[in-house]
Amino acid sequence: MELIFSAALCSVLVSILLKIAKNKGYDALQMITWNYAIASVLGYLWFKPDFAHISIAQTPWWLIVVLGMVLPSIFLCLAKSLHTVGILKTEIAQRLSVVLSLFAAYFFFQEQFNLLKIIGVVLGIGAVLCLIVSKSTSDVSPTTKQGIFYLLSVWMGYALVDILLKYTSSLGLQFAVTLNLMFIFAFVCSVLYLLFKKAQWQTKNILAGAVLGILNFANIALYVKAHILLKDSPAVVFAGMNILVVLFGVIAGLLIFKEKLKGLTVLGLIFGLVGVVCLALAI
């Protein structure tokens, strides 16, 4: 359980760092770029991918390239969502991306739905709707509209990444190799975009990106290790990770960033947590 706790803590620390950095004038995209550079190095050292036996012909490069572009884009949307709607709602939306992943599993991967999965999906959608309505009814300013857009982008974007990763694993590509190639492509794509935008590189963004990369990779590595050690209890890992991240996000939002819990936000939080428990029990 310590691994799940640590992985969840690292996940929320990523969000906290992005939110604080934005308020301090750091460039989120530069941080995200160097995050992938550090993560690729750590991934190579930790997972020890076997690059020597990669099949050039059979490797789905198009998929890795797509993920390499999507990952930094969604990470940037995460940073924007944290800044506009707060850490509490963003973490809930990110964790409830599993609802859309389940839809894909049903329609594309022929996964069967039982009653608990249906209840979990319905509660998850209800939770996201509560988060959106709680923001839009209190304020209809351009900032709020942007916040809703970024919130939905996080929800749908992380589901897309999950679906693509599932598809990649179904092709038989080794996880360690896939992870490293994705990180490398994400770094290359981000650098090219920053060069195109003629960004002013700053050392502080590189250093902050290195910290972000360590936390982001630690989150992934600890989560994977938890699944390996608890291979007979995937529901414990899944539910524990999602629930702890949401709870840590609530604590961070209330205590660190002084966010307020409105009625619909509380309802969305309850729907989200119950939905996650239902999905975990359905595994």
- The structural domain count equals 1
Q: Average pLDDT value?
A: 85
The proportion of residues in beta strands is under 5%
Q: Main sheet, how many strands, which sense, barrel? A: none
Query: Termini, distance in Å?
Result: 19 Å
Explain how this protein is built.
- Residues 3-132, 147-279 form the EamA domain.
- This is DMT family transporter.
- It comes from Acinetobacter piscicola.
- It is a multi-pass membrane protein.
- Belongs to the EamA transporter family.
- The protein is an all-alpha fold and 283 residues long.
- It has one domain (1-281).
- Helix content is 81%, strand content 0%.
- It has eleven helices and no strands.
- The protein has helices spanning 2-23, 28-47, 61-84, 87-95, 97-107, 115-136, 142-170, 175-196, 203-229, 234-256, 263-281.
- α1 packs antiparallel against α9.
- The model is unreliable at 137-141 (pLDDT under 50).
Defining key terms:
mainly alpha, single chain, about 280 residues, about 0% strand, 11 helices, globular
